[in-house]
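As promised in the previous annual report, we have extended the structural survey to additional targets. Below is the entry for MYO1H protein.
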Amino acid sequence: FLMQTSEMLRKICMRNLVRKYCRGLTAERKVQLQQKVVTSAVFSGKKEGYLESLSQPFLDTRLKENDLNPKVLQLIRGENIKYVTPVIKYDRNGFKARERLLVLTQSSAYVVEMAKIKQKIEYSTLKGISTSNLSDGIVVIHVPEDKQQKGDVILQCEHIFETVTKLCILANKQSLVKVVKGSLRFRVGSGKEGTMVFTVGPEPQVFKDKTGQLTVV
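The corresponding structure token record, generated without further manual editing, is:
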């Protein structure tokens, strides 16, 4: 009987401590925890660097709305900008690296070059999000095969866990995130596909190999 009473008291005490902790959370801290839960569901035990990312709080955004070119702001006016981060975009043909911004609004993702919108992806049309199981920052945003889209978007992000988490939460497509091993296929456009290979080496690299594949080290 004493054992049962002790167990009941322990559970009551734990419940009260949890309730007290939850009530003491700021709105900002609550959002952080909710985002980290999604990150855990997507990446825990799947991608290298996840454990190291646990202690790093996510920022609301890496760049402020004021950092965007006024022409871009005018083009996406009426949409609530949620997150902006610098990225490296790799061309689908030739894989040339280009500096871009990834802008996430309430309804769409934009790949931006200075004062130009290079590609718009409405979340409702998003087909998938792919990353590798290694420590690189590559993410591929898969888009539908239609005339409005040039093909899948290949990006390199410094804050990969943060960026992918923000994207899949805003798009409400957590289940579409895939962490792949070895290689992945992406759509180039006009029915064509390309291959990206992930490997391990002494230093990080992203290059076009002799076979024409994009190799990520």
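The CA atoms of residues 11 and 188 lie 56 Å apart. The first strand starts at residue 81 and ends at 90. These points will be discussed at the next consortium meeting with the crystallography subgroup.
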